[in-house]
Specification:
By secondary structure, this protein is mainly alpha-helical. It contains 10 helices and no strands. The protein has one domain. The chain starts with a helix and ends with a helix.
């Protein structure tokens, strides 16, 4: 659950999009250079985060409640195909359950591909100090766009590889949950350093809340590993 709702790619994607906004809106500047913009910018980011996370968790809750009330109620606890998952919608959609599920999968794919492939390209590109960003044309950021293309192609190939898609989703969420711990710890260490963040260094309740969230994630990973053996 943590791996699907607090995934590492979210950190990279949101941070990268904030940088893109600075390029797209000339009046916006790095907050280190223009601290007077900090209050409005952080309020906007806070609202964006709260609304986004609220909707994502609402969707996650709806999925769990729907499948529990339909599939689990009938004793179906091991879903191996998307056709089985679509059965969860039959009480509501009837004979259109599979069409509705298919539309949802297509919509999710169109939403997820640029975010997942893009966040991976941003993370790799920034680590390698490549020119990054969708605001650049492909001649300016060839390695960045190549990474997006390769990641997308790998995902397409997996569809025809015979890999169990449901298990792949499950284990990717598990890996996301594990990887999120060092990413969150690094993020908290950096956010608390005034030589990096200037006057916007995290302190007080927000700092402790961040470390508590990191500790909860770490405890979940340890508990999972201990109970897996």
């Amino acid at each position: 659950m943590f791996g699907t709702t607090i995934s590492p790619y979210l950190f990279f994607w949101q941070a990268a999009e904030e940088v893109e906004d600075i390029k797209a809106f000339p009046r916006r500047e790095d907050l280190i250079d223009a601290p007077e913009q900090g209050k409005a910018a952080l309020k906007r980011i806070e609202l964006d985060t709260l609304v986004g996370m609220a909707f994502s968790n609402l969707v996650a809750l709806a999925i769990m409640v729907t499948t529990a009330a339909t599939l689990h109620e009938k004793g179906t606890t091991d879903i191996q195909t998307s056709a089985q998952a679509a059965e969860a919608l039959r009480p509501i959609a009837g004979q259109f359950a599979f069409a509705l599920f298919a539309l949802g999968i297509v919509g999710t794919g169109l939403l997820a591909v640029p975010v997942l492939a893009g966040s991976g390209a941003y993370a790799l590109g920034e680590a390698r100090r490549w020119p990054t960003g969708f605001s650049r044309n492909w001649q300016e950021a060839k390695a960045f766009y190549a990474t997006v293309a390769i990641a997308t192609l790998v995902g397409m190939v997996m569809n025809f590889s015979g890999i169990d898609a449901i298990k792949a989703l499950y284990w990717s969420a598990v890996l996301n949950g594990i990887v999120a711990v060092p990413v969150m710890a690094t993020m908290m260490l950096m956010a608390a350093r005034s030589d990096i963040m200037g006057r916007f260094a995290v302190a007080g309740a927000l700092k402790w809340l961040g470390w508590v969230a990191t500790a909860v994630m770490a405890a979940a990973v340890v508990a999972m590993l201990v109970t897996s053996f």
